[in-house]
Amino acid sequence: MPYVAVAIGGFFGAILRFSVSEWLGTWNGLNIATLLTNWCGCLVLSWLNTVTSEQLPIHPHVRLALGTGLIGAFTTFSTFTVDAWKLFQNGQIGLSLAYVLLSVLGSLLFTYLGFKIATTRFFSRRAGV
After folding, report:
1. pLDDT on residue 30
2. Cα within 13 Å of Cα(20), Cβ side
3. So where does Na(+) get bound (predicted)?
4. In sequence order, what are the beta bridge partners of 26?
């Protein structure tokens, strides 16, 4: 059953990821869609893990479907690295480096924000904690 949960979440995450990529595309060779999906994924996964482990326990299969499946398929490290490499190969070394830094530092920032949102007093009171 855990595999089915991950597969179902992954199906929807992959479709969502593809839709965002089609909608946002690239800018001057920079894959904005990958950058934003990875940032959003960090925010949501951090929030989800914090909320479901500390405030609102959910069934492990639901957690797998949402975290590993949906968010895992929505975000992508491999696309990020290929995009950075393409920029580098095309001679856009500064843009490649900026993309790597924005991706890593932005992902850490959004992970922190997801945690902070999940642990705010407002959310904790509404969840009954």
Report:
1. 85
2. 21
3. 72, 75
4. 31
